C-alpha cells in the first residue's frame, strides 16, 4: 500500500512530553556539510517527531572539528531548546 493522506475532522490536538532526543548523522560531504536527523522521544522512548538539519560552512561546519558536544549545542541553538542532564 502506498501512503494515503486522510484529513481528520475535527482536528486532533494533543500534548506530548518530549524527554530526550537522538541526533544522527544522515549524510556528510567532507569539508562541506553534514545532514543531521534529530528525533524527539517521549517518556516511553517512542519517536514523536523528527527534524532534519543541515550544518554547512555558513552556519557552523568549520567550527565542528569532530566535537560531538559542539553538534549537540548547535542543534539546541537551531531548534531553540534547552537540555537538562
Describe this entry's structure for a reader.
With 85 residues, the protein is an alpha+beta fold. It has one domain. The protein has two helices and three strands. Strands 1-2-3 form a three-stranded antiparallel beta sheet, covered by helices on one side. Strand 1 and strand 2 form a beta hairpin. The longest helix is centred in the C-terminal third of the chain and has 12 residues. The radius of gyration is 16 Å and the shape is extended. The mean pLDDT is 90.
What is the topological layout?
Layout: E1 18-29, E2 33-42, E3 47-56, H1 61-64, H2 68-79
Antiparallel strand pairs: 1-2, 2-3
Descriptors:
alpha+beta; 2 helices; three-stranded antiparallel β-sheet; 85 residues
Are there runs of 5+ residues with pLDDT below 50, and where? none
Order of helices and strands: EEEHH
Q: Please identify the structural class as seen in this structure.
A: alpha+beta
How much of the residues is beta strand, in percent?
35-45%
- Give me the side-by-side strand order of the main sheet: 1-2-3
Number of strands: 3
> What is the terminal separation in angstroms?
42 Å
Number of helices: 2
Domains (count): 1
Approximately how much helix is present in the residues?
A: 10-25%
Radius of gyration: 16 Å
**Shape verdict:** extended
